[in-house]
Amino acid sequence: MHIGCHVSVRQGYAAASRITKRLGGTCYQYFPKNPRSLTVKSFSRQDALECRHFCEENGIISIAHTPYPTNLCTEGKEEHAAMVASVRNDLEIADACGSIGVVVHFGQYKGNHQDPLYGYQLMIRSLNEILEDWTGKALILLENNAGQGNKMGLTLEELVQVRSLLNKPELVGFCLDTCHAFASGLWTGENWGDVQKKGEKLGYFTHLKAVHLNDSRYPTGSYRDRHADIGWGEIGAERLGELIRSTVIREVPLFLETPGERPGGHASEIAFVKQLFGRPQ
């Protein structure tokens, strides 16, 4: 298994990979640039290359995550152009660092168009534009939403359908967030078997590249995206253990996006998840 957490790149991309090793992780997630801005970053390719080499030598896997303002359903011309340029920049950085890809939340349309499918059309247009000339190995990794705001991106059907309608679906994979799945009601904590069967039938798990492993501060169906440390939330360690030990997840890298509030922080939590993963079915 691969387990790790979100790591800061404040001291550089290579430094982030070394932090991961010190924490006892074998994978990590990072923001390739300022998480609160869509500004395109001019980055050190030497630093990125050092990061890539360190990860290859130590068996470490990484993914990047787009900044918070990223929305694939933007409608305004200037906002859309800034978003597209930003995600392309994220892909370039992730590719240089040797990362699997860049996690992007499923879009949220905030306009007033009467057609309920309009937001999905905007999202498909955005992804096609982002990937039109992309020749790198880093993928776009679409993440399921928790349901705050509108209710786009809560189901496996939506994720699979959007991918299937793209000009280059081979450049897109999925990232499953356990807190989001629980908050949206997709996974209640009691129905993982049903979720797995549906995902296998749809072909979702074939393209699953990463799992955001998070407990939830709020109950299932709350539509509230508030993460908790593993075993310290409403999902609980046993339910999360069932999920990560399942046949469709056990080979997928797990990335903690938790507060790290337990004694010992994320190093302790990584060790706990390793123990959880090893428990018998």
TrEMBL record:
GO process terms (BP): base-excision repair
Highest taxon of the lineage: Bacteria
Gene3D superfamilies, A to Z: Divalent-metal-dependent TIM barrel enzymes
Entry keywords, A to Z: DNA damage, DNA repair, Hydrolase, Metal-binding, Nuclease, Zinc
InterPro entries: AP_endonuc_2 (IPR001719), AP_endonuc_F2_Zn_BS (IPR018246), Xyl_isomerase-like_sf (IPR036237), Xyl_isomerase-like_TIM-brl (IPR013022)
Domain Xylose isomerase-like TIM barrel, first and last residues per copy: 20-275
Annotated protein name in UniProt: Deoxyribonuclease IV
Species the sequence originates in: Brevibacillus laterosporus
